[in-house]
Amino acid sequence: MRVLGVDPGLTRCGIGVVEGVAGRPLAMLGVGVVRTPADAELGARLVAIEQGIEEWLDTHRPEVVAVERVFSQHNVSTVMGTAQASAVAMLCAARRGIPVALHTPSEVKAAVTGSGRADKAQVGAMVTRLLRLDAPPKPADAADALALAICHIWRAPAQNRLQQAVALHASGSKGRTR
Amino acid sequence: MRVLGVDPGLTRCGIGVVEGVAGRPLAMLGVGVVRTPADAELGARLVAIEQGIEEWLDTHRPEVVAVERVFSQHNVSTVMGTAQASAVAMLCAARRGIPVALHTPSEVKAAVTGSGRADKAQVGAMVTRLLRLDAPPKPADAADALALAICHIWRAPAQNRLQQAVALHASGSKGRTR
C-alpha cells in the first residue's frame, strides 16, 4: 500500500510518502514540505498548496491520502489555516478518486511511539527508526507527514476488518468470529 | 462592480451575485445554495462544493468574490466545515485570478442593517428591500451571501481610499485630505 501523508498547514504543509504493509518493513518514497509566504494573500496561498500537492500526487500516485484530522480545540490562531490547508489536500485527493483517511494527532503518535502524548522529538526518532533513515526528517511537519502515512498503513487492516464486520452485520449474515 | 458573495458551509453553501456601485440602486443577478449530503465523505463534499462554485463563476464572471471571514470562536461543531468550505471558495476564485475579499459577520450585518448584532430576520428584510425582491431569499444562507456581496460593494470605496492613503503615505507623497 502506498500512502501519501499530509500534515496540513499554510506556512508549511508537510508531505511524506510511505510504501508497505502492516507487519513488514516500510519504505519511504519521498518527503518534503510545501511552503507558502505568510505575507501572501490567503487565496494565493491555497492555490500554491494545491499546485504543490498536485505535483506530489502526480509523482507518487498514492493509493490513499492520509490527512491529519483537525480539531477546533487546538491553537486558535493557527487552526483556521490548518483547516483550510487540509481542505485543499482532501479536495486534490478526492478529485482524483483517491480515498482520503483522517487520523487524529494522538492516533498518529500512539501508532508510531505507543503513546498518544508523545512529543515531536519522540515521533521524529521513531519515524527515523521505522523508515531506517540516517536522521530525523526536518522540519517536524515533514516527519509528522511520514508518521501519518505509517499510522495509516498500520491502522488500515483493523479499520478494514471493522468495516467488513459492519457490512456483514448490515447484510443480515452471521459474521464469523476470528 | 459585480460581486459573488459566498456564505460558506458544507451542508449549505449560500451564493449570491449582486451588481452595482455604492450610492446607486443594486441589482441581484442570482442567488442559490450549493448543497452536499451530510452522510457523504468529506473529500467528496469538497469536490461537490468546488463544482458548484465553478458553475456560479462560469455563469456570472464576478470581478470580486466576497467570502465570510470564519472565526474559530464560533460554534465549535460547525466551524471546521465552514473553514473548509471557505477554503474551496477562495481557491476557486484565486485560481481564476479573481480577488477575494473577506468580511466578518458583524461587518456584513452592520453594512446592511446598521447594527453588527442584527438577527437573521433583520438581515433578510434589508436584503429584500435593498435588492427590491418580493420576499426574503430562502434559506438564510442564500440571503447572507447576498448581504456579503452588498457589504463588499458598499465597503469597497472606503477600503480603496484607505489603501490609496496608505500607498501615498508609503511613497512619501503628501496625501490630500478630502
Automatic annotation (TrEMBL), chains A, B:
Residues bound to Mg(2+) 1: D7, D141
Reactions catalysed: Endonucleolytic cleavage at a junction such as a reciprocal single-stranded crossover between two homologous DNA duplexes (Holliday junction)
Textual note on the cofactor: Binds 2 Mg(2+) ion per subunit.
Active site: D7, E68, D141
CDD domains: RuvC (cd16962)
Cellular component terms (Gene Ontology): cytoplasm; Holliday junction resolvase complex
Enzyme Commission number(s) from the entry: 3.1.21.10
Compartment annotation: Cytoplasm
Residues that coordinate or bind Mg(2+) 2: E68
EC top class, as a word: hydrolase
GO BP annotation list: DNA recombination; DNA repair
Keywords, in A-Z order: Cytoplasm, DNA damage, DNA recombination, DNA repair, DNA-binding, Endonuclease, Hydrolase, Magnesium, Metal-binding, Nuclease
Cofactor: Mg(2+)
Annotated PROSITE patterns: RUVC
Entry keyword Cytoplasm: yes
GO MF annotations in UniProt: crossover junction DNA endonuclease activity; DNA binding; magnesium ion binding
UniProt keyword Acetylation present: no
Principal location: cytoplasm
Protein's job: The RuvA-RuvB-RuvC complex processes Holliday junction (HJ) DNA during genetic recombination and DNA repair. Endonuclease that resolves HJ intermediates. Cleaves cruciform DNA by making single-stranded nicks across the HJ at symmetrical positions within the homologous arms, yielding a 5'-phosphate and a 3'-hydroxyl group; requires a central core of homology in the junction. The consensus cleavage sequence is 5'-(A/T)TT(C/G)-3'. Cleavage occurs on the 3'-side of the TT dinucleotide at the point of strand exchange.
The family this protein is said to belong to: Belongs to the RuvC family.
Protein name as annotated: Crossover junction endodeoxyribonuclease RuvC
